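Cross-posted from the bioinformatics board.
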Amino acid sequence: MALNNPTPLGPWKITAYDQENFQGKRLEFTSACQNIMECSIDNILRQKQEIWAGYEHSSFCGQQFVLERGEYPHWESWSGSNAYHIERMMSFRPICSANHKESKMVLFERENFIGRQWEINDDYPSLQAMGWSNNEIGSMQVQSGAWVCYQFPGYRGYQYIMECDRHGGEYKHYREWGSHAQSFQVQSLRRIQQ
Amino acid sequence: MALNNPTPLGPWKITAYDQENFQGKRLEFTSACQNIMECSIDNILRQKQEIWAGYEHSSFCGQQFVLERGEYPHWESWSGSNAYHIERMMSFRPICSANHKESKMVLFERENFIGRQWEINDDYPSLQAMGWSNNEIGSMQVQSGAWVCYQFPGYRGYQYIMECDRHGGEYKHYREWGSHAQSFQVQSLRRIQQ
């Protein structure tokens, strides 16, 4: 059990193995891990309870990956974008605010919460198919729950995790979406289910 | 305009380019294309209307990819599994039966529609989180609409497109899910939205 970075107690549990297909050294975590290298293990593979966010680098930096409950036998099973190849996750934490039924967010056409806006409370595998006019979102206000936005349609490409209890739920520019964000491009998004 | 394989008329349209970022030679399709090499183009990149299924090989074989409306500037933006690397799509067709609101499917624990069953009409980023006991589905009956099943949680890994108007909606063994299916493993699934 590694408790580098205590978080609110919950039913969270994630099991990491240092080899593919759940082989080798095994560690269980019930709270955030800021740097898995300090635990002498470098893979994360079986998610047993609730929702976790995984990160490319230590201290919750770099590409983000939502980890739903289930089995991830190798890195390809959780990685989201091939454009920038990564083979391991270095840090992870529970997503405490995920609340599927109550998730609500407002999308804005431009940064700093200006321009056309759209309040959503559902999943959208293609924002353009549902009436959003282009392939970008300028800014977002998460009113409740947690969301994951994707660069491409069909839940593909870079992932950006947006939570009501981080940044006060306000993401006014792509620079606040995560250290890997390089543009306003978002073409699909969905609620994170607890 | 290539009309190799006429399908029912609909509002379908997909534009393919032979270079990344929507550059180079361009072709528009309004119905299925059985082999894109015959059109002297080998990428598929901008999906303008409704939903298409893309395939790794000609004649709708190999890995499957759901293409929602939006922009796919390079192969990483639509590819679903890195485990078996592919860089192009060879054939594609519209998914005529997609019907988001009316989608209904029954999951069975074992092949040939036996064992525990579960009727669903919603999206499930993690079947295990919603009560399904393991990481496999034995067989499926699509009663209405079209669905996409994924090997891993969070809509990752191999994709299997299931439609009410193919196979009579019956998929009684993984061998009927597609020529790329090698196991019963399914950990997430969702309705295909028209």
